[in-house]
Amino acid sequence: MSQPNERPEPTPSPEPMPQPEMPAPSGRAPEQRTLRKPRSVRWESAWVRLPVLFVPLLAVNGLTTLINGVADATPVTGLLSGVATAGLALGAYVWLVRRLESRRNPAELRPANARSELRIGALLGLGMFSLVIAVIAMGGGYHLEGWGTFGGALTTLGLMTCVAVTEELAFRGALFRVLEEKTGTWGALAASGLLFGALHMVNPDATVWGGLAIAVEAGLLFGSVYAATRSLWLPIGLHLGWNMAEGGVFGTTVSGSDASHGSLFTASVSGPEALTGGGFGPEASLVAIVICLIPTALFLREAKRRDRFYARAGR
């Protein structure tokens, strides 16, 4: 019992219940979203993961080029070598990603999407370059001379398969994907495109204009395809279809290099470099740049529509 003169102790008021955080407004523009690093990533800094992933993949690209250069003596060995080295490059990418990102299975290489997206990308690449050649031919710059060799085209197919796989793994799978965490989609597009163009500056007949053309028409195009789909299969197929049409079907120079080992047609090119691309090949022509910018714009619009366009970190 309490004493008569004692006042009872006041009952403490209950602490207020924590209020749940309200979600961000859904009407926010897609480009204002920031791409966040997956929680499973072991290496916290993108600036650390980027060189550890990108540089080995560039080395894989160089190594597979040497292997294919030795194995291209016959169409069969050339084709098998190109496909096998492409498979080894895919395995190297998966292994590196799993080691660096806490055993993450790369969703950008989901096996279920491989067949359909490779087929669609290859057909799109073949169609786009066929349109480029058609326009150049109507301008008097491309002259079809006759049939080439089916065996040579097979060898070229093997080589271009490996080129498409290794370059897309390095520049879109590593460089674009990881850099986007820090620079956003626009920064990743610009940087990966410029470095992709710079890679082709080492080719025998490379020019500064040719490198810039590759950066715009190929670097931006392949980057926009990845941004819209978040899959590497479609840009790999597109890259393969374009290169195969260029070097393995129509018999033109590929990016300033004599990478082709034969084609279905033999042809010659003459006329102003703005039309034909000169010694660098049709990729340095204004025709190719204009034709590639159209799907680039469409894929970038699709990326925004799908809410897959991200702002620079810290904004």
Automatic annotation (TrEMBL):
<dbReference type="InterPro" id="IPR003675">
    <property type="entry name" value="Rce1/LyrA-like_dom"/>
</dbReference>
<feature type="transmembrane region" description="Helical">
    <location>
        <begin position="208"/>
        <end position="228"/>
    </location>
</feature>
<keyword id="KW-0378">Hydrolase</keyword>
<feature type="region of interest" description="Disordered">
    <location>
        <begin position="1"/>
        <end position="37"/>
    </location>
</feature>
<feature type="transmembrane region" description="Helical">
    <location>
        <begin position="280"/>
        <end position="300"/>
    </location>
</feature>
<keyword id="KW-0812">Transmembrane</keyword>
<feature type="transmembrane region" description="Helical">
    <location>
        <begin position="240"/>
        <end position="260"/>
    </location>
</feature>
<dbReference type="Pfam" id="PF02517">
    <property type="entry name" value="Rce1-like"/>
</dbReference>
<feature type="transmembrane region" description="Helical">
    <location>
        <begin position="118"/>
        <end position="138"/>
    </location>
</feature>
<feature type="transmembrane region" description="Helical">
    <location>
        <begin position="46"/>
        <end position="67"/>
    </location>
</feature>
<keyword id="KW-1133">Transmembrane helix</keyword>
<feature type="compositionally biased region" description="Pro residues">
    <location>
        <begin position="10"/>
        <end position="23"/>
    </location>
</feature>
<keyword id="KW-0645">Protease</keyword>
<feature type="transmembrane region" description="Helical">
    <location>
        <begin position="79"/>
        <end position="97"/>
    </location>
</feature>
<feature type="domain" description="CAAX prenyl protease 2/Lysostaphin resistance protein A-like">
    <location>
        <begin position="153"/>
        <end position="244"/>
    </location>
</feature>
<dbReference type="GO" id="GO:0008237">
    <property type="term" value="F:metallopeptidase activity"/>
</dbReference>
<keyword id="KW-0472">Membrane</keyword>
<feature type="transmembrane region" description="Helical">
    <location>
        <begin position="183"/>
        <end position="202"/>
    </location>
</feature>
<keyword id="KW-0482">Metalloprotease</keyword>
<protein>
    <submittedName>
        <fullName>CPBP family intramembrane metalloprotease</fullName>
    </submittedName>
</protein>
<feature type="transmembrane region" description="Helical">
    <location>
        <begin position="150"/>
        <end position="171"/>
    </location>
</feature>
